[in-house]
């Protein structure tokens, strides 16, 4: 193979995650010599594309590289993934093969045996990825790993290790008891008192878990790393600094449990675990306004929110490896939310689920997905502080709270991140139920599967939809302009008793400047009230004081004098009548 630098590199991405594909494209935009010629999600799509191309190296400028995400192992076994790589190498030898790997997936040695030319963890930065692609394009095999020069930590002390073991034992014990209680809670026939007691015990366990985590959870500044190299010169000379070819060290500890699990719990993991725990409690609506989720059975409501949390975790994991920088997230906000909403709809209702509507079978999901543009306008665009939440959970960028920055992991930042995450989950749940009510509101099969028993009659369903419609209009006409003018967001958060509404402060000046029409009129009315009300109150207060003075000191005294005169007259008349009764004549 030639070792000359190629003029251009053409990439075929076989990546199941759209977010990760998008991140790779954004990361490679600044390298004009690297072009993404196609992107597919499955091996079958890749083979179809390659069969359609059938271009030899002489027919296409530059070098072709096929980049394969090892996340395909979710649909393929590891051996099937290796066989797929071998098939590509045999059928299309003019292409180079590169694996983009997750921790703990197929090893570099096994992939080299089937013809893979490059091996790059998803955690590698952009420069390492590009350097690896260029080396592979030159005909060399190359592995990118982690730089050990950044390692700062020493082996933790014996006391830290003891605390960690206590932490693991306690958390395991709490998790076991929680699992048993959740099984009991899902059993039919429980009385209201029994359910209250079980939920109370779950809240106690949640508090105990938080206390144990606060006291005993390991907080390490670094993890040990060591440098490793390929055996017997297996790695070719690539012309890149050796510092770019390092992998995490195996712990020197004889305790395998310690070497694998002594990892600080990330802020993201804490937020997700706390939210997952809250989903086990009651999900009653305590906001005094109707929510779309209210129509679902309690079990279906909990199931939907759990699906959203799981898909949200998948999206965060994809973003972690996507190479999308924090400042690039803003332009992709709606793409992320649309993908998340579509994934939740497909997962919750079932990709191929069918119901009978007017004597014909119809698929639910395709019909619901048709409303995505309307859902975006009514729900997704209004999700508050979404980019700040992503930056915090993915990149651990500090959160702005009340005009102050709070670092990742601080109690204030964690509490705010939990509130934003819970609000996102509840709002997405409402947005998933909305198209169901629009298309299949009074379908018997839907009512049997999803609806609460108190909302299954046609009259109650229509009244519920009307309440939702009125709430939406009221929020659009009055609530949202008022919130923008007051620099507030209303969040739906999960508490032990159910879903509650809270308000938080956040600057919204840009939105205020963009208001027009009726929304602007509402803010002007509020501003006018704020300007006039204090003066009017002062004027009314002054007039009241004057009236009080007039009534008490002038009219009151006058009335008092009149009453006194009347009483004196009555007294004189009484005296005269007594004298007349005694037969005495006045002199």
UniProtKB/TrEMBL annotation:
Coiled coil: none annotated. One of its GO terms (biological process) is phosphorelay signal transduction system. Residues 228-260 are annotated as: Disordered. Gene3D superfamilies: 3.40.50.2300. Residues 10-137 form the Response regulatory domain. The modification 4-aspartylphosphate is found at residue 69. Residues 251-260 have a biased composition (Low complexity). InterPro entries: CheY-like_superfamily, EvgA-like, Sig_transdc_resp-reg_receiver, Uncharacterised_Ycf55_cyanobac, UPF_Ycf55. Residues 228-250 have a biased composition (Polar residues). Keywords: Phosphoprotein. This is Response regulatory domain-containing protein.
């Amino acid at each position: 193979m030639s070792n000359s630098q190629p003029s251009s590199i053409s990439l075929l991405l076989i990546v199941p995650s759209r977010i990760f594909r998008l991140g790779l494209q954004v990361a490679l935009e600044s390298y004009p010599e690297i072009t993404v010629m196609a992107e597919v999600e499955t091996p079958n799509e890749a083979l179809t594309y390659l069969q359609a191309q059938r271009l030899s190296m002489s027919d296409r400028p530059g070098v072709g590289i096929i980049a394969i995400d090892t996340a395909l192992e979710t649909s393929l076994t590891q051996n099937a993934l290796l066989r797929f790589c071998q098939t590509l190498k045999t059928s299309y030898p003019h292409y180079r093969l590169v694996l983009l790997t997750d921790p703990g997936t197929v090893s570099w040695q096994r992939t080299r045996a089937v013809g893979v030319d490059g091996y790059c963890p998803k955690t590698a930065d952009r420069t390492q990825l590009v350097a690896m692609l260029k080396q592979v394009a030159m005909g060399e095999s190359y592995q990118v790993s982690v730089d050990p020069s950044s390692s700062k930590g020493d082996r933790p002390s014996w006391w830290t290790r003891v605390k960690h073991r206590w932490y693991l034992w306690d958390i395991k014990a709490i998790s076991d008891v929680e699992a048993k209680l959740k099984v009991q809670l899902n059993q039919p026939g429980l009385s209201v008192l029994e359910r209250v007691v079980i939920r109370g015990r779950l809240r106690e366990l949640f508090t105990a878990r938080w206390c144990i985590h606060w006291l005993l959870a390991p907080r390490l500044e670094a993890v040990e790393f060591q440098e490793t190299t390929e055996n017997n010169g297996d790695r070719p000379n690539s012309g890149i600094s050796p510092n770019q070819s390092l992998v995490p060290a195996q712990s020197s500890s004889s305790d395998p449990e310690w070497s694998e699990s002594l990892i600080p719990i990330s802020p993201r993991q804490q937020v997700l675990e706390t939210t997952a725990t809250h989903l086990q409690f009651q999900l009653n609506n305590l906001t005094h306004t109707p929510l779309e989720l209210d129509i679902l059975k309690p079990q279906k409501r909990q199931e939907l929110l759990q699906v959203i949390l799981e898909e949200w975790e998948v999206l965060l994991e994809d973003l972690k490896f996507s190479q999308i920088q924090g400042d690039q997230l803003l332009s992709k906000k709606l793409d992320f939310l649309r993908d998340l909403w579509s994934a939740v709809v497909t997962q919750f209702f079932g990709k191929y689920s069918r119901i009978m509507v007017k004597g014909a079978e119809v698929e639910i999901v395709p019909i619901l997905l048709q409303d995505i543009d309307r859902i975006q306008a009514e729900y997704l665009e209004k999700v508050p502080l979404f980019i700040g939440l992503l930056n915090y959970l993915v990149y651990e960028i500090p959160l702005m709270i009340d005009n102050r920055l709070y670092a990742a992991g601080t109690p204030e930042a964690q509490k705010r991140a939990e509130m934003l995450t819970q609000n996102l989950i509840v709002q997405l749940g409402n947005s998933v139920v909305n198209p169901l009510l629009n298309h299949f509101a009074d379908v018997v099969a839907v009512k049997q599967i999803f609806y609460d028993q108190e909302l299954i009659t046609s009259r109650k369903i229509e009244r519920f939809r009307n309440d939702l419609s009125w709430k939406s209009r009221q929020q659009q006409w009055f609530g949202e302009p008022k919130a923008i003018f007051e620099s507030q967001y209303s969040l739906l958060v999960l508490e032990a008793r159910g879903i509650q509404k809270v308000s938080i402060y956040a600057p919204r000046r840009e939105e205020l400047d963009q208001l027009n029409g009726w929304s602007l009129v509402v803010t002007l009315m509020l501003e006018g009230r704020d300007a006039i009300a204090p003066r009017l109150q002062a004027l009314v207060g002054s007039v009241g004081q004057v009236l009080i003075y007039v009534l008490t000191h002038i009219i009151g005294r006058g009335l008092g004098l009149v009453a006194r005169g009347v009483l004196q007259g009555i007294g004189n008349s009484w005296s005269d009548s007594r004298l007349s009764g005694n037969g005495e004549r006045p002199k």
